[in-house]
Every structure is written in C-alpha cells, then in structure tokens.
C-alpha cells in the first residue's frame, strides 16, 4: 500500500478542505444568484428568453440540459438542486464517504451550472463563470477524508491559480499605458464596475500610494504565481501573498466571486505543517505516518464506512483494488487537465493574448484576465420615467434606482460580492459600448409594462408598481467627492448631467 502514498500529499488536508468547501460555497452563491435573477433576465418572459435563444440554433453546440426544452420551473429546480448539493459539500458530508461521492457531487454542480451558463448569453458572459466551472471540475478529483489528497490534482489546481493570476498580470502589462506608468489606480477605484463601501476612501489615498498599489499588484500577479510550485515554505508564503492582495481587492470593490475564487484556489499550495508552524493552534490534520498506519490496517474494503472519517486520524483507507482505481482516476484527470492547459499556456505568452476565453465547449483549460485597460471617467446610464402626458424636460422625471449601480449622490455603495448583480454589471458596460442593445430595449419595455419580475431586480421603483407614461435614457458623469465637499454636503458623488441618449418613448413605440 505504500506506493499509493507516492502519489499523495497527506500534509495538504487543510488545502483540500478549503478547496472543496470553498468552491462549493461559491457554487452556492452562483445558484442563489441564478435562482433570484435568471427567470427575470432570461426566463420564458425574460429580456433575452432562453427558448428563443435555443430555437434560433439548428444545432446548439454548447452542452446544456436545456437543449431539450426550457421552462422557468425546470430552472428553479436545477438551482434548488445545486443549492442542496453545494450546501452538503460545504458541510463536509459527501467528503465523509469514499472519494467517488464528492466526485459525483461536484460533477453534478458542474453539469447543472454549465447548463445555465451556456444559455445565459450576455448576462453570463463573465470570466468568473468559466472559472467556477473549471474550478468545480478540478476539485472534484481531490478525493475524500478516507484518502490523502492526490498530489497531481493539487498541482493542477495550483496551475489554475497560476493561470488566473499570471494571466491577469500579463493582460495589464500588455494593456493600457496606465498599468506601465503606474497610474492605473488614479482612476480604477472610482471607475470600476461596482464600487463598494470603501471604494471612495481607496480613491482618495495619496497618488504615491496608488503607485505602490500598482507595483504590489504587478508583483503579486507576475512574480508570486511562480512560487506556488516552489518547495515549502515558499509555496505557502506565495499563497498567503495572493490571499492578502485579493482581500485588498475585496475591500476596494465588488467583483462577484472572482477574488474569492483566487483566494480559494491559492490554498492548493498551502501546507498543513507550515500553517501549524506559524499558527500552532491549527492542528496538523493527517501525516504521512498516520496514513501509512491506516493503509496497513486496511482489510480491502472501505473500512471506515460510508460516513466515517472527518477530522482527526483517518478512520479508514481503501484496499488495494479501490486505492489503485482511485489513484488511476485522479492521475488520469490530472493528465487530462494538464493537456487542456497547453492552449492557455500558449496564450499567456502570445502577443495577442486573449482574455477570459474558453478553448473548448466544456469550459476546461480556459484563459483568464481582467482590466487590461482602465476607464478614466465614470459615465453612468440613468433611466427615468414620468406619468405626465407631455414628455418635455419640464415633466416630472423620476429615476429608477439600482441595487449596486451608483445613483443618489449621498448613498453609500453597498458590499455585494461574492453575490453577482448581473443587471447592474451590464449597465456599467453600456457607456463603454452602446445603449442600443437588444436586452436594454427589452428592459425599457418591461419598465413601461411595470413588469413585477424586473422591478424586483431594482432597489427602488419610483412609481410603486404603476406603469409610467414615458421612459427616457440619459447619461451623467459621476466623480467621487473630496473630503472637504463631503463634510459640507454629505454627498459622496459629484454628478454632472450630460445628454439624453434615448428620447422619451412610450409603450406603443417600443412595441412597434
């Protein structure tokens, strides 16, 4: 039985616990986000209905369970199933059995969420969607409490963390000049998609500190990731640096589960012994010796039973046949993922580096990156309605308020991450591209109808469920106020109206 330990990493139990439960927790958030928002955005009566999307393709090449038909009820059942399975993994229940139980659980999450993402269209076109899918498939092969973590799978998981961090670093270096002259954070905290409660305080830091932030970011993303594969304790130190820098980003803004994913994946390089040396109150879960003792006591079956195991000494270890099968499965999965990693590796060093791209329809072996350039001005799209018959500038125009998107000048931005507000995120992209997008006109149409499902995605409906007579769209420049101005006015934003982008429209205009 000792040969099995050659392919195992008994000193990485903490890493496995964080990886499996952390990724499952992110799946829980993702399914909760979909349960609350998908029907209104993409459901049978959504802005971009999935039935129309599926029927528009003679042969939908993306794998999804909705290939044979979509209904909001089926979507809700799938989300509920995902919540239950991910919740069980967070509690550690599947991990108490043999390795194939958490494997099946994670593959269920992967299939369910991939089915949602592949019909999610623009509302699911974010890099962290494919990151969550790849992370879920990868950690599925980390085994259970009844066997030590497979070394090969830990390496593949560290490779995923490397691609995430190094890819983001390379995108920035090859992107806007602001990343090379260290001025990117003069603007980023103010212009990022969804500011958080502390974003204004970060923005008001002295400019020399902003340059230090950029240098620290380059170091964390371009240098540190290589040390995830270094001998201990260097690998754990590298992981700690990734965790600290990602926590800094979490404090400064809202980026759904992107930063939390990086934190969780970084634990693939964390050794129990190093953690115990720094934090003596953290126990060393298992050791090579304890696993060897368990292996020597094996009687050829899962001796711990289906729900044995957990913390402390291993209660059981698979016999020769089972251990051999599981080792082969884990090693084969690692080789498979390593082969798929060739394309993203090639992309990392390409002059035309792709950002957040999948090279296969299963979304495994992807390339990642974010904010290759930084927006210099924050222009917000403002949607207004009126009950007046005459839609002139003198009409009583009332603004629709969003949950995460900036609105009132005095309102403190909320912390939403890791929860993903999909409508608010897409509203940020409109000024960078165009307001004349299909989903946005459908959104305006729903507001004219006072559609309850869409109104629930907003923070405030100025008409309290009543249908407005007219809707118009304009834009405005948003800038964080200085400390002096805030003391005088208690306003966090300086708002400068710009121009009307979409003239007042009524229900018959949109229907036509």
Task: Please tell me about this protein's structure.
- The chain has 22 helices and 6 strands.
- With 512 residues, it is an alpha+beta fold.
- The strands form 2 sheets. It has a 4-stranded antiparallel β-sheet with strand order 2-1-5-6.
- This is Lipase maturation factor family protein.
- It is found in: Endoplasmic reticulum membrane.
Short synopsis of the structure:
Belongs to the lipase maturation factor family. With 512 residues, the chain is an alpha+beta fold. The chain has 22 helices and 6 strands.
**Share in β-strands:** 5-15%
Helical percentage: 40-55%
- Average pLDDT score: 90
Largest sheet: 4 strands, antiparallel
Q: What is the N-to-C succession of helices and strands?
A: HHHHHHHHHHHHHHHHHEEEHHHEEHEH
CA(first)-CA(last) distance: 73 Å
So how many helices?
22
Radius of gyration: 25 Å
Unreliable segments (pLDDT under 50, ≥5 consecutive)? 297-318
Keywords:
22 helices, alpha+beta, Lipase maturation factor family protein, transmembrane helix, LMF1/2_N, globular
Layout of strands and helices, then pairs:
Elements lengths: L1 H4 L7 H30 L7 H6 L16 H20 L8 H18 L9 H13 L11 H24 L2 H4 L7 H4 L7 H5 L3 H16 L11 H19 L5 H9 L5 H7 L9 H9 L23 H21 L1 H7 L29 E9 L11 E2 L1 E2 L19 H8 L8 H12 L2 H4 L2 E3 L9 E11 L2 H7 L3 E13 L1 H5 L1
Antiparallel strand pairs: 1-2, 1-5, 3-4, 5-6
Helix pairs in contact: 2-4, 2-5, 2-6, 2-13, 4-5, 5-6, 6-7, 7-11, 7-16, 11-12, 12-13
Keywords: Endoplasmic reticulum, Membrane, Transmembrane, Transmembrane helix
Subcellular location: Endoplasmic reticulum membrane
Protein name: Lipase maturation factor family protein
